[in-house]
Design a protein that fits this description.
Number of helices: 9
Number of strands: 4
Shape: globular
Pathway: Amino-acid degradation; L-phenylalanine degradation; acetoacetate and fumarate from L-phenylalanine: step 5/6
Order of helices and strands: EHEHEEHHHHHHH
Main location: cytoplasm
CATH class of the largest domain: Mainly Alpha
Strand content: 5-15%
Structural class: alpha+beta
Oligomer: single chain
EC number: 2.5.1.18, 5.2.1.2
Organism: Charadrius vociferus
Largest sheet: 4 strands, mixed
Strand order of the largest sheet: 2-1-3-4
GO cellular component, one term: mitochondrion
């Protein structure tokens, strides 16, 4: 497998966690979203992913984009260890939390949106993340065990950790979100989350390396 990734992309990080959890070795092709006006806009990359976004994963003779589609494929083809619960209610809760982050928070504060916001970009990102986290904290009161849904690591957790990393980058006050903070801390102690961390990627700048 070949993963086209950017060290700080939260969408790429989700996929890196899934690959690590499932013990899938892969090669990384870094795509720098800032350098050369954004390497994702190159004709070569656009031919592979017309949305001009990372991640993209070449695996089993196909090329997939969109992090959740990639993660679902990995789950379907390499089910151990599982990251979607067998119980239909818990499975729905995992998908709900993942969608909440992937659709309701992350796109509002990603690079392409922030470019449009000019000087207000930090304030905009903080507001988008805070309103999403207020709702998420409420949801987790009903679903959380050790992790987002019960005591098994799931796709919801793969989405949570990169989003908390973004929140910290944008200096969001995490005080009002004790459950999110607790789960994030527990997950960051797991090997799959550590090896996939933005500070430990081949394209991580020297000053940001762990």
């Amino acid at each position: 497998p070949i993963l086209y990734s950017y060290f700080r992309s939260s969408c790429s990080w989700r996929v890196r966690i899934a690959l690590a959890l499932k013990g899938i070795s892969y090669d990384v092709v870094p795509v720098n979203l800032l350098k050369d006006g954004g390497q994702q806009f190159s004709a070569e990359f656009k031919a592979m992913n017309p949305m001009q976004q990372v991640p993209a994963l070449k695996i089993d003779g196909i090329t997939l984009s969109q992090s959740l589609a990639i993660i679902h494929y990995l789950e379907d083809t390499r089910p151990n260890p599982r990251i979607l619960p067998q119980d239909p209610k818990k499975r729905a809760q995992v998908r709900m939390i993942a969608d909440h982050i992937v659709s309701g928070i992350q796109p509002l504060q990603n690079l392409s949106v922030l470019k449009q916001m000019g000087e207000k970009k930090t304030e905009w990102a903080q507001n988008c993340i805070a309103s999403g986290f207020q709702a998420l904290e409420q949801i987790l009161q009903h679903t959380a065990g050790q992790y987002c849904v019960g005591d098994e690591v799931s796709m919801a957790d793969l989405c949570l950790v990169p989003q908390v990393f973004n929140a910290e980058r944008f200096k969001v006050d995490m005080g009002p979100y004790p459950i999110i903070t607790r789960i994030n801390k527990a997950l960051l102690e797991l090997e799959a989350f550590r090896v996939s961390h933005p500070s430990r990627q081949p394209d991580t700048p020297a000053e940001l390396r762990a």
